[in-house]
Amino acid sequence: MAMTEEQLQELITRICENPDLQSAKRRKDIERLLRELQQLSGLIQSSHLLYLEALDQTWLWVSNHICNFERQPNLSIKESLKNWINGYLKRRIQDLYINQAKQQHDELSLDIPIHENSENPLTFLEQLSDNSFNAPTLSGIDSYIEKCRNINIQVALDNLEHYVEEDPEHIFQNCHPRKNPNCNCKFLCQKLVFQYPPDTFANISRELEINYDTLRSFWKRKCLPLLQQKLEELGYSRDE
Asked: What is the secondary structure of 116-134 as a DSSP string?
């Protein structure tokens, strides 16, 4: 059951009044707060493959800066929190698209005007929607982002989820850090990609008792390439 406005404010106040940042009670309160915030309606979403990384960065930022949060006038605390979180998450998603555009289209700058002769020239970056972050349908903009809006990719993603769940060749389950078989790609994909709302690296790190940086590095180096490879085998290719 979702917290009331008063309960949410009391929880934030209790966190910020606890001076011991490493105390078990404060960590428990932070985890409770994050579970509640993950259920907020209206959080920005994106089809970018690394969106979950941006989201996890956001939750880590919230954990470290919740005491800097200020409620907006004439808005509920939940609405204010949603706006506050979205402000940071928006920048992290923009970073993903900027980095991807730099890698795949070095000749294209997102900061150059789309129409140089226009009285109010917009840049490619400004064309990113505040709500959905769908990329603009302009020639030259990353075709991978365009394809993510095609229904075919949803079919491929559904097939991907089914494949990872079955894992008939044990490819995902057998891919794990040395001495930590529980931290395998099948488990991580289910937690970070197919679960809603997705879990966070911080929670998984504590659950599996594995170093946070080791976990994130393993996910990026091993599991994401496995997902991309299998997605292409199931009929989707970013090079189509």
From this structure: TTSSSPPBTGGGS-SSS-P
Nearest to 160 by CA among 150, 177, 172: 172
Give the 3-state secondary structure of residue 113: strand
Give the start-to-end residue ranges of the domains of the chain: 1-136, 151-233
pTM assigned to the model: 0.48
Residue-level pLDDT, tens digit, the chain, 240 residues? 788 999 999 999 999 998 887 888 988 999 999 999 999 999 988 877 788 888 888 998 999 899 999 989 889 999 999 999 999 998 888 888 777 666 654 444 445 554 444 455 555 445 444 444 443 433 333 443 444 444 455 566 778 888 898 999 999 999 999 889 999 999 999 988 888 777 888 889 889 988 888 898 999 999 988 988 888 787 655 544
CA distance readout (Å), 160 to 41, 53, 64, 176: 27, 19, 34, 19
Q: How many CB atoms lie under 10 A from the CB of residue 132?
A: 12
Tell which residue, 139, 151, 160, has the closest CA to residue 228: 160
> Which among 141, 139, 133, 142 has a CA at the least distance from the CA of 54?
133
Contact 43, 82 (CB under 8 A): yes
Residue 67 Cα distances to 31, 87, 182, angstroms: 15, 16, 35
The CA-based dihedral angle spanning residues 87, 47, 101, 96, taken in that order and rounded to the nearest 10 degrees: 40
